[in-house]
Amino acid sequence: MIDLGISKMALIGAVALIVIGPEKLPRVARTVGALLGKAQRYVSDVKAEVNRSMDLDELKKMRETVEGAARDVENSIQTSASDFEKSWSEVADAALAPEPPSYKHPNKNWRLKQGAMPQWYKARNGVRTRALSGAARVARFRPPRAR
């Protein structure tokens, strides 16, 4: 790199003042400053583009590794699923050979179950303790007759 110290900058400024002249020097300095700014922006844009391309390459590599891992998992799941299907079909074939016993209702007596409930619980929760026929229910809730 070029090492520009204060003494070298002063020497370049003195030569420019003599060569260009005091009238044109400010305009030339502005133009040189603008060109240097454009060059710096261009260099920073190139650096950013290189960094983006490097990140993109890393992301592509990462995507390929993730896709490979997903494929491996999918293959292992498919092989285990096929093994499961084979064993399931063997079990199902073995289970279908003898006929399963038919369903038999346990014949629980629900009245015994109702009777095992304590009276205080029935009273609190509004459980009927006596069975009413349809006619008795109508007679119970019929409004009284007017005489």
UniProtKB/TrEMBL annotation:
It is a single-pass membrane protein. Keywords: Cell inner membrane, Cell membrane, Membrane, Protein transport, Translocation, Transmembrane, Transmembrane helix, Transport. InterPro entries: TatA/B/E, TatB. It comes from the Bacteria. It is found in: Cell membrane; Membrane. The Tat system comprises two distinct complexes: a TatABC complex, containing multiple copies of TatA, TatB and TatC subunits, and a separate TatA complex, containing only TatA subunits. Substrates initially bind to the TatABC complex, which probably triggers association of the separate TatA complex to form the active translocon. Part of the twin-arginine translocation (Tat) system that transports large folded proteins containing a characteristic twin-arginine motif in their signal peptide across membranes. Together with TatC, TatB is part of a receptor directly interacting with Tat signal peptides. TatB may form an oligomeric binding site that transiently accommodates folded Tat precursor proteins before their translocation. Belongs to the TatB family. This is Sec-independent protein translocase protein TatB. It comes from Rhodoferax potami. The gene is tatB.
